Amino acid sequence: MNEVGYVIGLVAVSAAVLALGVWFVRREIRDEVSPALVLWTGYAVVAAFVVFGVVRTSWVVLS
Amino acid sequence: MRTSFLNEHSLGWLGLAGRLYLGFVFLTAGIAKLPEPTITEQAVRSYQLLPWQIAPAYALALPIAEIVLGGLLILGLFTRSAATATALGMASFIVGITSAWARGLNIDCGCFGGGGASADPSYLADTIRDLGWLAIAVYLIVVRRTKLALDDLLFRRDAALDDYSESSKKTELGSST
């Protein structure tokens, strides 16, 4: 498997997941499932985990 | 009306099946790793992803987290939060396995104990299996309610009462007309 191709795929999939996450949080807020602050805080934690994972993995794979 | 009633119920039962299955998978994985922290540490290091110093703490924390998440899923307690954490865990395992594959490492995933160098790694099978488990975790996040969950007993009391009072109103209105 090509390392550069792997990293491009990883970044693309992660960006798609984060975009889907925004859609999901907005849907949950619209349906009043939980307070908006709680949902956006949860999203920020998940997004931070995803971004850290992508950066770390990309760094290791490409180095 | 009848169709939506059936759908809601079948989705809830499907959620229960997913919860129990994924819960037992995580519980089994955690119990398998817990008594062997040095072997788990070796498995973590073989991925060459985390800094060397973090591996012992990660090897200790991972099985405990898996057992806790497995227990929460089986009980249906904090289901959506537990499913979110499970999905993140599965995603990180998939990234670990596929990155090892991309780098040409020959390791065993160590998902249920063991791990380290392997002459015959099964990256494709492990990735497909983990994608299936990730799909179940995502379903549990999206479906909102599952059957026989402690969440319903502890946190949805008001909602249950609202449902009851709504149905009572309809019955009363129906009987008065």
TrEMBL record, chain A:
Q: Which sequence ranges are marked TM in the entry?
A: 6-25, 37-62
Keywords, A to Z, come to: Membrane, Transmembrane, Transmembrane helix
Q: What is this protein called?
A: Uncharacterized protein
The organism is Nocardioides luteus
TrEMBL record, chain B:
**Coiled coil (UniProt feature):** none
* Domain annotation Methylamine utilisation protein MauE: ranges: 13-141
Subcellular location as annotated? Membrane
| Primary location class | membrane
Q: How does it sit in the membrane?
A: Multi-pass membrane protein
Q: Where are the transmembrane segments?
A: 12-32, 52-75, 82-102
Keyword terms of this UniProt record: Membrane, Transmembrane, Transmembrane helix
Name of one Pfam family that matches:
MauE
In its UniProt entry, what is this protein called? Methylamine utilisation protein MauE domain-containing protein
Q: What is the lineage of its organism?
A: Bacteria, Bacillati, Actinomycetota, Actinomycetes, Propionibacteriales
